[in-house]
């Protein structure tokens, strides 16, 4: 088979889910990672190679790279979230963490956790994807300016974000790999293959072990549309081995020939955002906006993409309620972009969710296995069970979350509200089990601020006062056994809710004991209904109720 029929591309998930949407620590540069690579390979017996255990990474990160321990754990935990572990194993880990009664017990438990060393080195290197460039900052492309966001009511407003988030940009992923391929290959080379700092010897060899590490970032196929394989699997095929410089004597690949073959074979991800927008299956919902029919732009590749590359893109959902619990969404990476005055319910297990440049929108999600990331949003409410919640450059947003990890607050946030998870739907607990998320531990109220502080050092968030707490009712009939909020509510919120319910009962008793006659009851009922409708209009809830009314058959669109 000719070489041109082979395609290699950057995997989506390491960049989408692994790269934190913020500038990385300065010491994640190649200079320090090169030293780290030599250090871990020299300490195989100490738990550094081929798998790096938490105590050794903490020693490297805190002792040598001068990172805070919370930051060291953040990166280690993020890499672990990418690992393909069975949901049962993640549930067992969650149970073990919830039973830790002290910091010492938790630390002892973390000693058992390890990550693939070569993959972790590559994981740390690709954090540079979102590094702010001084050159582009000077010409205005990446300069962080969270206060410059437009407050225009138009859902199509042009807004500058606090940072250029490239996690979804498959063209940026390809450019990054092409630009830094030499460094990436060097990080997985064995020490004896290096002639000096940053210099591979002329006849350097790339081992099969190194190829498995590179498969963390690269995958491909023998022809587009066929089975997708990791790089090491792809290069197990004889004709490709010859092209890439394989030696049967050393069972390794020539570095110069492998690098040349990779450069010739690299292409954009055929399952990435660009391809999905160009040729993905379109979904559409008709909606009435200011007297004119407009459509939300919704596309997906879930009908053709392999696991890990399934993408659903939803843009410009405006003044509409969208609800989906379809299997077509299960396990997908979902991006909600520029939605405004909308109510979005995605009640199915998801891989990840990004909410970007949305405003005045409520998003209710099924369990999200990895990350829910909110970027450059205003007045958005997100309700989720998720492996992680992260927020950047957003203002006046509320998050009702159930998450085993600390919410990550990135720079540029202001006036955020963190609150406990407060809803349920019938199949929620089954969905949670399917993605390995449990009700404990829950760290929704213990955010980690990564370079994120408010004016004069004030935190950019508050915890929702119990007096303001109200549960959310999912307004759809579904099948399942979940009848209450998984894990219940924190005591102070349950107490406030019980007190509110008691006040309602007292009011109902007062009305009953008033012994109104028929005409008085009619007048009283009319007054209550009038005040209720006024409240619906003032609060904006009238729009949500109206949008729940099924559209006439002739206006419905095929959902695909």
Automatic annotation (TrEMBL):
<dbReference type="InterPro" id="IPR036223">
    <property type="entry name" value="CAP_C_sf"/>
</dbReference>
<feature type="region of interest" description="Disordered">
    <location>
        <begin position="142"/>
        <end position="165"/>
    </location>
</feature>
<dbReference type="InterPro" id="IPR017901">
    <property type="entry name" value="C-CAP_CF_C-like"/>
</dbReference>
<feature type="domain" description="C-CAP/cofactor C-like">
    <location>
        <begin position="306"/>
        <end position="437"/>
    </location>
</feature>
<dbReference type="GO" id="GO:0051684">
    <property type="term" value="P:maintenance of Golgi location"/>
</dbReference>
<protein>
    <recommendedName>
        <fullName>TBCC domain-containing protein 1</fullName>
    </recommendedName>
</protein>
<keyword id="KW-0963">Cytoplasm</keyword>
<dbReference type="InterPro" id="IPR039589">
    <property type="entry name" value="TBCC1"/>
</dbReference>
<dbReference type="InterPro" id="IPR012945">
    <property type="entry name" value="Tubulin-bd_cofactor_C_dom"/>
</dbReference>
<dbReference type="InterPro" id="IPR006599">
    <property type="entry name" value="CARP_motif"/>
</dbReference>
<dbReference type="GO" id="GO:0031616">
    <property type="term" value="C:spindle pole centrosome"/>
</dbReference>
<dbReference type="Pfam" id="PF07986">
    <property type="entry name" value="TBCC"/>
</dbReference>
<keyword id="KW-0206">Cytoskeleton</keyword>
<dbReference type="GO" id="GO:0051661">
    <property type="term" value="P:maintenance of centrosome location"/>
</dbReference>
<dbReference type="InterPro" id="IPR016098">
    <property type="entry name" value="CAP/MinC_C"/>
</dbReference>
<comment type="similarity">
    <text>Belongs to the TBCC family.</text>
</comment>
């Amino acid at each position: 088979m000719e070489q041109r029929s082979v395609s290699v591309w950057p995997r989506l998930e390491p960049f989408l889910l692994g790269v934190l949407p913020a500038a990385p620590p300065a010491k994640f540069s190649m200079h320090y990672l090169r030293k780290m690579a030599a250090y871990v390979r020299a300490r195989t017996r100490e738990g550094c190679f081929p798998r790096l255990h938490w105590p050794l990474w903490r020693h490297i990160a805190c002792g040598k790279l001068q990172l805070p321990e919370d930051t060291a754990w953040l990166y280690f935990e993020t890499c672990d979230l990418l690992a393909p572990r069975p949901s049962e194993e993640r549930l067992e880990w969650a149970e073990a963490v919830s039973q830790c009664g002290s910091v010492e017990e938790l630390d002892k438990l973390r000693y058992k956790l390890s990550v693939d060393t070569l993959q972790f080195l590559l994981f740390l290197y690709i954090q540079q994807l979102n590094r702010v460039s001084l050159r582009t900052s000077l010409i205005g492309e990446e300069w962080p300016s969270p206060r410059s966001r437009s407050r225009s009511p138009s859902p199509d407003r042009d807004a500058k974000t606090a940072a250029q988030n490239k996690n979804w940009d498959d063209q940026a992923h390809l450019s990054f790999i092409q630009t830094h391929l030499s460094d990436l290959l060097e990080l997985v080379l064995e020490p004896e293959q290096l002639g000096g700092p940053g210099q591979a010897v002329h006849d350097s060899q790339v081992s099969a072990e190194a190829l498995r590490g590179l498969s963390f970032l690269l995958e491909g196929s023998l022809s587009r549309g066929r089975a997708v394989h990791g790089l090491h699997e792809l290069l197990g095929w004889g004709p490709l081995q010859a092209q890439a410089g394989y030696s049967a004597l050393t069972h390794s690949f020539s570095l110069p020939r492998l690098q040349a073959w990779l450069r010739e074979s690299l292409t954009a991800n055929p399952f990435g955002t660009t391809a999905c927008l160009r040729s993905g299956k379109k979904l559409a919902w008709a909606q009435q906006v200011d007297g004119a029919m407009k459509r939300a732009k919704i596309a997906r590749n879930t009908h053709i993409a392999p696991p890990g590359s399934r993408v659903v893109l939803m843009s410009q959902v405006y003044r509409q309620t969208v609800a989906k619990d379809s299997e077509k969404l299960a396990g997908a990476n979902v991006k909600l972009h520029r939605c405004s005055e909308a109510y979005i319910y995605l009640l199915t297990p998801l891989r990840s969710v990004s909410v970007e440049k949305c405003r005045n929108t409520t998003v209710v999600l099924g369990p999200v296995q990895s990350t829910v990331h909110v970027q450059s949003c205003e007045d958005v409410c997100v309700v989720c069970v998720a492996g992680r919640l992260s927020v950047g450059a957003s203002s006046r947003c509320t998050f009702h979350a159930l998450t085993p990890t600390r919410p990550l607050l990135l720079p540029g946030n202001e006036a955020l509200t963190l609150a406990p998870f407060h809803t349920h739907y019938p199949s929620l607990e089954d969905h949670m089990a399917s993605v390995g998320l449990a009700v404990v531990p829950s760290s929704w109220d213990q955010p980690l601020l990564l370079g994120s502080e408010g004016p004069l050092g004030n935190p950019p968030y508050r915890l929702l006062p119990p007096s303001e707490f109200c549960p959310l009712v999912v307004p759809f009939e579904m099948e399942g056994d979940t009848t209450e909020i998984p894990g219940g509510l924190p005591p102070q919120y349950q107490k406030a809710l019980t007190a509110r319910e008691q006040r309602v009962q007292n009011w109902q008793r007062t009305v009953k004991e008033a012994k109104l006659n028929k005409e008085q009851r009619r007048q009283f009922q009319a007054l209550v209904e009038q005040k209720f409708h006024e409240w619906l209009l003032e609060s904006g809830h009238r729009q949500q109720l109206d949008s729940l009314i099924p559209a006439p058959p002739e206006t419905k669109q095929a959902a695909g």
